[in-house]
Design a protein that fits this description.
With 542 residues, the protein is mostly beta strands. It has a domain at 2-107: Orthogonal Bundle (Cytochrome Bc1 Complex, Chain D, domain 2), CATH 1.10.760. The longest helix is centred in the first third of the chain and has 19 residues, at 2-20. The structure holds heme D.
């Protein structure tokens, strides 16, 4: 039935594109341009890029539509109904009104406005040290088990909640800014570093009672990633933000967020091709074996090793090694006890394997359609040895990869299992040594049942053993998103992401029986998305 619907959609789109192809840019007023630019930033730029040349989503420049003979009716139909590969159905979901759909269709047939610049001087001016280091406590001020705190993004209200992972009580809600995206813990666990889509970064001191923001800065105008220095001798010393726009990374003092250095990532595709102005920094991980961050430059298909050990010296030298990998690098994480780093090149349906010790691009593994691992999931299988897995946005598959070339060379860098899932649209997958299960969501499934469901895969059977709809999620029109385990791994938590007018919930599950054991609720619990356990995030446990 769904295949029939997709075929029908494709036929309708084909007819619309042929019959109404249009190459002239439709007229727009200045006010309409401003509104459309904002909507594009909020809803579209993450996947298509501000310059619209494509990444996770395809190229949607006016030239592209003209070449493909696709005009206003086609574009409107796609904005309304979405596409099977992951383009959301903005109109059908009621997220964009009829007028907004029409506005956005006209907007993408006009040339993209040039995004503003943001320079090191702007970054310095934006820096605010709210609590100097000397005024901060020297030990935790609360008796709570702060290493089991869970930071929860309250995305659409621009806040983060800190919840006690032992008691599930709310510790505090901290303002963190517009569309907060992720939290990362410093290696000591004491600080949460926060990044928002508007490029604003802040840090929260968990020794304070209640925890509070101690410094803020705006490294860029659009960002998704932040990480701290984790190598011995550099613990909590530096932080880095990966910017989407302007394309750059920025290094900060890890205790104050005072900006130290900004480095442009504008680069040539795989070192030799076209020059890309929009070369956005996607996932960043911090090595514990060397004073380095591994940074992924999405559009140029390069992975950069940034050695920060000399950044305090005069001139702030950074030693950067760039290797060519695959294009449109997105999210990824450590595999096999941090021996390897795996990142999704999601528009190529590939997983790129990097060996941090040799700084080599080791292998490229065929995933499903649009792999989206988050950090991925690690476990040890009795026959296959250490494995790492990703979900896929565009196909109903969890791809399990062998990650132990020394102990299990026959399986290394192969998809050792392609587990068939009931839905597409997986955004996140998580595992913990204390649980026999690997848990996936289906947040962007086009099937409403999928977007409110979870599945548990047996670590040994490599099969889906249980899937269930989270009760009550559909009633508040929430999507189930992101899984996080508590420090001891006995529980995992998932968010029900409703709209910001509706108080939502976090469902808490026993990680062995898969029974729901509690539900965190409250008027403050609006639009929860990512959840970050201090201990697991500091130690890259996933
Ligand atoms: Fe994310 C991780 C980018 C949409 C929630 N997201 C990441 C990372 C990147 C990224 C590059 C990896 C960071 C790292 O590890 O250093 N995300 C993007 C986008 O470009 C995209 C597709 C579109 C956009 O416009 O932003 C996007 N992300 C979303 C969402 O819609 C989510 C569900 C809610 C939100 O904040 O908008 C979302 N992304 C997350 C979360 C993580 C993440 C929770 C961290 C996962 C983890 O377990 O570590």
């Amino acid at each position: 039935m769904r295949i029939f619907k997709y075929l029908l959609l494709i036929v309708v789109l084909a007819i619309a594109s042929q019959a109404f192809a249009q190459t002239d840019a439709p007229a727009m007023t200045d006010d309409e341009m401003v509104t459309a630019t904002d909507i594009f930033f909020d809803r579209c730029a993450g996947c298509h890029g501000v310059l619209r040349k494509g990444a996770t989503g395809p190229n949607i420049t006016p030239e592209h539509f003209a070449n493909d003979n696709k005009g206003l009716p086609y574009i409107k139909a796609v904005i309304f109904g979405g596409l099977p590969g992951g383009m959301p159905d903005w109109g059908r979901q009621g997220i964009l009104t009829d007028e907004e759909q029409d506005l956005m269709a006209r907007f993408v047939l006009n040339d993209p406005p040039q995004p503003p610049t943001w320079e090191f001087g702007n970054i310095k001016d934006s820096w605010e040290l709210l609590v100097p280091v000397a005024d901060r406590p020297t030990e935790p001020q609360s008796k709570r088990n702060w290493e089991n705190y869970v930071g929860v993004i309250l995305r659409d209200v621009g806040k983060a909640a800190i919840i006690d992972g032992d008691t599930r009580e709310l510790v505090t809600v901290v303002p963190t800014g517009y569309a907060t995206h992720i939290l990362r813990s410093s290696k000591s666990g004491r600080y949460f570093y926060v990044i928002g889509r508007d490029g604003k970064a802040s840090m929260i001191d968990l020794f304070m009672d209640p925890p509070a923001v101690v410094a803020k800065v705006r490294p860029c105008l659009d960002a998704r990633s932040i990480e701290s220095s984790k190598f011995e001798g550099f613990v909590d010393k530096y932080a880095v933000v990966g910017c989407y726009w302007p394309s750059a990374f920025v290094v900060f003092d890890g205790l104050t967020l005072e900006p130290i250095k900004m480095v442009s990532t504008v680069s040539y595709v795989k070192g030799a091709g076209e020059l890309v102005q929009e070369a956005r920094v996607a996932a960043i991980v911090a090595s514990e074996d060397s004073p380095e961050w591994i940074l992924n430059v999405k559009e140029s298909g390069q992975t950069w090793f940034v050695n920060y050990s000399n950044v305090d010296k005069k001139g702030h030298p950074l030693d950067v090694t760039m290797i060519d990998t695959e294009r449109y690098l997105h999210d990824g994480g450590w595999a096999n006890q941090r021996k390897y780093f795996i990142v999704a090149a999601n528009a190529e349906n590939k997983l790129v394997v990097i060996d941090p010790a040799t700084r080599e691009f080791v292998a490229s593994v065929e995933a499903g359609v649009k792999p989206h691992p988050g950090r991925g999931a690690n476990w040890v299988h009795s026959k296959l040895g250490p494995v790492w897995a990703t979900g896929n946005i565009g196909s109903p598959e969890v791809t399990v990869v062998g990650v132990d070339p020394e102990g299990h060379p026959d399986q290394a860098w192969q998809a050792v299992e392609r587990i068939e899932m009931p839905f597409t649209g997986t955004l996140f997958i998580k595992a913990h040594d204390a649980s026999p299960w690997v848990i996936t969501d289906f947040t962007v499934s086009s099937n409403p049942k999928g977007s409110t469901s979870l599945c548990a895969i047996g670590k040994e059977s490599l099969k889906v053993e249980k899937c269930w709809e989270v009760p009550g999620a559909a009633d508040i029109k929430a999507r189930i998103v992101h899984i996080e385990f508590t420090k001891d791994g006995s529980e995992f938590w998932v968010s029900a992401w409703a709209n910001k007018e509706t108080p939502s919930f976090i469902a808490v599950y026993d990680s062995n029986t898969l029974e729901e054991i509690d539900r965190i609720t409250g008027d403050w619990l609006l639009t929860p998305t990512g959840k970050f356990n201090v201990y697991n995030t500091a130690n890259d446990i996933y």
